[in-house]
Amino acid sequence: MNTPPSAIDFEEAILGSLMLDKHCIDKCTDITPQMFFKNEHQIIFSNIIKLLSDNKPIDFLSISQSLKDNGQLEQIGGLSTLVFITSKISSSANIEYQKSILIQKFVQRELMRVCQQAMHKIWNDGIDPFKEKDLIIKELEDLNASKSVSFKKLDLIVDETLTLLEKIQSQDSLITGLDTGYLTLNKYLNGWQNSDLVIIGARPATGKTAFCLNLVTNIVRLNIPCAVFSLEMSSKQLVDRLISNVSNIEAYRLKSGDLTESNWTTLHTQQWTFPLYIDDTASLNILDFKARARRMVKDLGVKFIVVDYLQLMTTYDTGNREQQLGSISRGLKATAKELNIPIIALAQLSRDVEKSNRLPMLSDLRESGSIEQDADIVMFLHNQTDPMNEIVEVSVVVAKHRAGQVGLIDFEFQKGYQRFIEK
């Protein structure tokens, strides 16, 4: 049987450098004991990490004493093993390169393990192949060993912040994120911020899909790529609404085909090259969403994503519905943070809002679970006039905002054109 991929010499070189040069540990905070192939090396590195967490010095003597105290010195072959490892090191200058080889071999072994397990499972006709596919994708996604350390020193963060503030001040607008297209909303949010999860809740037929299409249209008109995951409506239904908004043609004409010659002229002369991508897969699984969103960001440069709507997403979580939705909301937040883009997810509200005819509250999110906890911003749409009217007065309630103010913004919803106008 062939030996799994490994680089024993490099493992020894890393451990030797750590024992001889106390500054080397700062370059190795992104590796774990499991990345070492030899069990003895895993034990040694585990003790080094323990010393680090206890704020103790890391050198030959402290490591040997730690191994002795934990009854592991003989497991690694005694002091002679530590002496042998350190005797091979003349310089720690190449530790970055050695670490990259260590990680590469670890990822190779993990890929082999995942693939072998997958092969064993998929021979069983009783499995759900779609579920197994998603689980395999998730396991492969979790191989983030090669990611660099994510911490930053305070002075570097302050420098970045001041540079951003100088850039903002030199512009006409004080928006720090993507333009919402609405003046007052921008003042509340400073635009859509990267890595934010935004929940927009409303009762059915309140216009939440139309509102989000307005938000998306405002962004793609600036030639910024956006994506909409529509779990409720087909791509054609969404596009009909978008066409009505952009071309100023009543929605009913697009549905019935009752178009005037002027309407046809408008449709043919309007440029439809907006960088908008629509995925209308029904019952989309959160793992599939993460994979598709990642590809859209990487391949298409997508900067803004809308999910319509959250409660229609699925997960392989076997808990109750509240736990499942909690898993979905955490997945959405994790995706926004990983891809560093804003994600807006629409959500249904409970019937209590209609019964009491009051402004919505965070507790009105249906099967809320951790939705309100995971969200950076929660907004609600609330009809202030009869929803059957052609023009409806709608309040946008900013009920939660981690980084700013909350409050109420008045809009006018022109149903005929699927258009929201800030009053």
Task: Kindly summarize this structure in a few lines.
The chain has 2 domains: 8-141, DNAb Helicase, Chain A (Orthogonal Bundle), CATH 1.10.860.10; 178-422, 3-Layer(aba) Sandwich (Rossmann fold). Helices cover 46% and strands 13% of the residues.
Describe the 3D structure:
The chain is α/β, with parallel strands linked by helices. 46% of the residues lie in helices and 13% in strands. It folds into 2 domains: 8-141, DNAb Helicase, Chain A (Orthogonal Bundle); 178-422, P-loop containing nucleotide triphosphate hydrolases (Rossmann fold). It has a 9-stranded mixed β-sheet with strand order 3-2-4-5-1-6-7-8-9, with helices on both faces. Residues 145-150 have low confidence and may be disordered.
Report the CATH architecture of the largest domain. Answer: 3-Layer(aba) Sandwich
How is the CATH topology of the largest domain named?
Answer: Rossmann fold
Biggest sheet character: 9 strands, mixed
Q: Number of domains in the coordinates?
A: 2
Write the layout of secondary structure elements.
Elements: H1 8-20, H2 39-53, H3 60-69, H4 79-87, H5 95-122, H6 129-141, H7 154-169, H8 183-189, E1 197-202, H9 208-220, E2 226-230, H10 235-247, H11 251-256, H12 261-269, E3 276-279, H13 286-300, E4 304-308, H14 321-339, E5 343-348, H15 352-356, H16 371-374, E6 377-383, E7 391-401, E8 407-414, E9 419-422
Parallel strand pairs: 1-5, 1-6, 2-3, 2-4, 4-5
Antiparallel strand pairs: 6-7, 7-8, 8-9
